[in-house]
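Example S7 (structure tokens).
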């Protein structure tokens, strides 16, 4: 009996046949057996057919919550990942149609088409729409589908003993879970979202079905929907007249399979042109994931997107349904990292990456960016800036943190009398760093390449040339870093681009049991950087963490990808996990102790959890200082972080009511924003030259 462990529960499934993938989704109070007798043998002749029991149904595991169509779509994605199904056509009955539509909305690259058999979708329900008008657009109407689900269970059970058993099972499920209420939550699947679903949809509705009005509503808003009515059939026409249902959907399944095969076929990108080229230099997931979220969002809007960067992340990019081009191979990266393995704080590592990727980045832009395309890259990407100057491509800089961004050198919350002196010192330090540390490592190689391209050499890189003259998007909110004097006019702030983690949206069962067995633990996290997370430094961090937990007597989770970094003999209530989804585990922690990377800092702010930062290098001290100024945590320099000092600071952070209140305030601010959408709006508008200011800075030559 095959089962997959997905999001903390066992999901029962069955498969039959071979060929293009078709996944079948049953409705509430049912199970996969309704497909097994008739659909499996007939569709299995031409397709690989998979059917599964929804959470809480059939032989799948049961949880208290997680029964909204959005959550169940996450379970579906987990099953696709488990079975290595890259794309599938979904066949869904009743409420299963809501799951299919949510999957097509959230993961369009994984859904080639959807057959909706007499769909039941909350946003199309007449009572839901009436209550929505009454309560307003910002509130989710509170409906309960308990009575309707019991009625369905009675219909499925037939007569006599079977009906009584079905009713008893369903009533138990409804009594023990939030199924009745959560199944009526439309969440983000509203009529505006329906308009954005470009997946082909075939809707088969029974002429005698009580849900015909819902089918008509969906047809109005789904842009690529074809509707067929089944005569003399009701809500269960798929099982009353299975032969007629299969005949009407066979051509649609064939078309979806053909389209999917073409899109999944290996395609050489040698001469391909893309609407958007995303360049990255990052060496950690905190830097890669935000860019990946933006690339996925642009792809959902119908743009062809090429993601370029370190080949260590190629599989993650391709799993997201995007094309990938390596600007640096794994071997090149390792050779670069090896030079600085003994000095992890050395800024020359980043400069080496910038210099080594410069030619490859320029080549990628020149070879793959369409004439009206846009290049999105960090300010440190020299190849993108050269392509802007030489080829005239549109360039938007994406910067994840305020550190190093002109006009953000000095925190705006400093007293007015202190700002001029602080800015003078900051700019003076920046000039020294630029002239004596940064530019000597970059300028010779950059000017040599400029000569090859027929461009005049530069006297300076920083202070006017390196930034895009068109648009710079700060991927952080204004309250995190307010602009000061000298801010560049082409800078726009959008917010932290934090994307949900659908493939890991449930904490494993053993971790959930640990979290529920006592007070919220402190979460210690080191780094996902491919270089900075080397074992010796990680061992120091987690040895310190174990000592702090012993002093404070607190429960804790230590997060790191290697067990070798974790000391043996951990204190009671302290355990190690290689990976946990931040979006799920952070809100259940009492505090997060980390190095101060912008990705972890943003995740903790979103979760509303206090932070204690032990910064080491680059932007980490600046991020830590801003966390303290917001009143959401504290920080101690890495070199001064003794066990007793960290324990005292952690205790103070945990006991501070002011910090707890500020955490809730900023978590609410993040929840009310949509930075990924706003970022993509700016990139899209730059493509059509509507909103971005085309400012040109004078290029300083020799």
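Recovered sequence:
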């Amino acid at each position: 009996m095959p089962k997959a462990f997905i999001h903390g529960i066992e999901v029962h499934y069955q498969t039959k046949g071979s060929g293009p993938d078709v996944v079948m989704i049953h409705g509430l109070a049912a199970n996969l057996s309704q497909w097994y007798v008739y659909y499996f043998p007939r569709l299995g002749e031409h397709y690989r057919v998979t059917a599964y029991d929804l959470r809480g149904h059939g032989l799948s595991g049961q949880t208290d919550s997680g029964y909204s169509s959005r959550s169940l779509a996450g379970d579906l994605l987990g099953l696709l990942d488990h079975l290595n199904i890259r794309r599938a056509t979904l066949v869904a009955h009743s409420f299963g149609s809501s799951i299919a539509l949510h999957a097509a909305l959230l993961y369009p690259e994984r859904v080639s088409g959807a057959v909706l058999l007499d769909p039941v979708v909350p946003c199309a329900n007449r009572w839901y729409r009436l209550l929505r008008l009454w309560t307003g657009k910002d509130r989710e109407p509170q409906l309960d589908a308990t009575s309707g689900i019991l009625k369905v269970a009675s219909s499925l059970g037939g007569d006599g003993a079977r009906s009584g058993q079905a009713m008893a099972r369903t009533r138990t499920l409804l009594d023990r879970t939030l199924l009745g209420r959560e199944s009526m939550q439309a969440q983000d699947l509203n009529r505006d979202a329906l308009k954005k679903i470009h997946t082909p949809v075939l809707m088969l509705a029974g002429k005698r079905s009580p849900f015909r009005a819902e089918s008509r509503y969906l047809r109005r808003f789904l842009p690529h929907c074809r509707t067929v009515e089944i005569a003399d059939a009701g809500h269960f026409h798929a099982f009353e007249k299975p032969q007629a249902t299969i005949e009407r959907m066979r051509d649609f399944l064939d078309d979806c399979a053909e389209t999917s095969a073409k899109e999944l076929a290996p395609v050489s990108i040698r001469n391909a042109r893309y609407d958007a080229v995303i360049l990255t230099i990052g060496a950690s997931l905190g830097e890669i994931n935000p860019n990946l979220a933006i690339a996925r969002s642009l792809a959902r809007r119908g743009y062809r997107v090429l993601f370029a960067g370190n080949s260590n992340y190629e599989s993650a990019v391709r799993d997201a349904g995007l094309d990938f081009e390596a600007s640096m191979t794994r071997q090149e990266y390792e050779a670069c990292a090896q030079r600085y393995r003994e000095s992890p704080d050395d800024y020359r590592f980043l400069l080496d990456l910038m210099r080594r990727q410069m030619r490859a980045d320029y080549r990628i832009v020149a070879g793959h960016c369409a004439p009206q395309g846009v290049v999105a890259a960090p300010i440190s990407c020299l190849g993108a800036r050269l392509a802007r100057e030489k080829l005239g491509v549109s360039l938007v800089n994406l910067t994840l943190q305020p550190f190093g961004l002109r006009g953000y050198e000095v925190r705006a919350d400093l007293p007015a009398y202190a700002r001029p002196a602080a800015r003078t010192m900051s700019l003076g330090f920046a000039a020294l760093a630029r002239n004596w540390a940064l530019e000597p490592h970059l300028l010779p190689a950059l000017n040599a390449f400029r000569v090859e391209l027929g461009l005049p050499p530069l006297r300076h890189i920083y202070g006017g040339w390196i930034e895009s003259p068109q648009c710079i998007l700060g991927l952080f909110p204004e309250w995190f870093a307010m602009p000061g004097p000298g801010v560049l006019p082409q800078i726009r702030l959008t917010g932290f681009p934090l994307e949900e983690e659908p493939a890991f949206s449930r904490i494993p069962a053993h971790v959930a049991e640990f979290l529920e067995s006592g007070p919220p633990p402190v979460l210690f996290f080191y780094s996902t950087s491919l270089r900075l997370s080397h074992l010796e430094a990680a061992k120091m961090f987690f040895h310190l963490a174990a000592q702090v937990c012993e002093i404070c007597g607190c429960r804790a989770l230590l997060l790191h990808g290697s067990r070798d970094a974790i000391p043996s003999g951990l204190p009671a209530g302290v355990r190690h996990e290689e990976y946990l989804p931040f979006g799920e585990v952070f809100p259940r922690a009492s505090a997060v102790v980390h190095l101060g990377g912008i990705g972890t800092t943003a995740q903790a702010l979103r979760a509303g959890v206090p932070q204690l930062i032990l910064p080491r290098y680059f932007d980490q001290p600046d991020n830590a200082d801003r966390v303290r100024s917001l009143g959401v945590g504290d920080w101690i320099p890495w070199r001064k972080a003794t066990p007793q000092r960290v324990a005292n600071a952690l205790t103070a952070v945990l006991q501070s009511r002011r910090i707890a209140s500020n955490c809730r305030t900023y978590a609410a601010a993040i929840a009310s924003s949509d930075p990924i959408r706003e970022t993509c709006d700016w990139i899209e508008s730059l493509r059509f030259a509507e909103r971005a200011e085309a400012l040109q800075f004078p290029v300083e030559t020799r």
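Notes on this example. The CA atoms of residues 372 and 687 lie 6 Å apart.
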